[in-house]
Amino acid sequence: MDATVEFTYQTDFQLVDEQRYANWLTQCSKAHNATSLTLVYAFMDDNSLLELNTKYLNHNTLTDIITFDDSLGYDINANIAISIERVRANAISLAVPEQEELLRVMAHGLLHCVGFKDKSPDEELIMRNAEDSCIQMFHVKQNNEPYVS
């Protein structure tokens, strides 16, 4: 499968190992039958994401992620904007590690591109289970440390 995953930064935040995240996102997309993958993740602050939310979606509210999905069928093509400030705040309010919340949000954007919705309670539950599956994939498949029992 052709896969391109890029990361841009508009804050001081930076992923420690971009290749690990790119590999993980590629594996998640394959698990959901994607035939090609072109993703750009932009990490920004609340104000920058609020500007996008207002300009393109007419929502004057803070959000953690906006997915601009140009996918055609299983050919995934999207720009995904993430507010690092929202991810950090959500991690605190949900009492989860920041890394886990970041993985959840990153997976969430990709899952929208492969057809997952989250407008109803049933859709939210299905989305959450798919996010959990992707997060598990990050920890299991991307863990380069040998297993020691």
Task: Give a verbal description of the structure.
This protein is of the alpha/beta class and 149 residues long. The chain has one domain: Collagenase (Catalytic Domain), CATH 3.40.390.30. It has helices spanning 18-31, 46-57, 84-94, 98-113, 121-141; strands at 2-9, 36-44, 65-69, 75-83. It has a four-stranded mixed β-sheet with strand order 1-2-4-3, with helices on both faces. A hairpin with a 5-residue loop joins β3 and β4.
User: Are there runs of 5+ residues with pLDDT below 50, and where?
Assistant: 145-149
- What amount of the residues lies in strands? 15-25%
Q: Provide the number of structural domains.
A: 1
Major sheet: size, sense and barrel closure?
Answer: 4 strands, mixed
Measured distance between first and last alpha carbons: 35 Å
CATH architectural group: 3-Layer(aba) Sandwich
- What top-tier CATH class fits best? Alpha Beta
What is the count of helical runs? 5
Structural class: alpha/beta
How many strands in all?
Answer: 4
C-alpha-based Rg, rounded: 15 Å
Indicate the overall shape: globular
Task: Spell out the CATH superfamily.
Answer: Metalloproteases ("zincins"), catalytic domain
The helical percent reads: 40-55%
Please give the order of strands in the largest beta sheet. Answer: 1-2-4-3
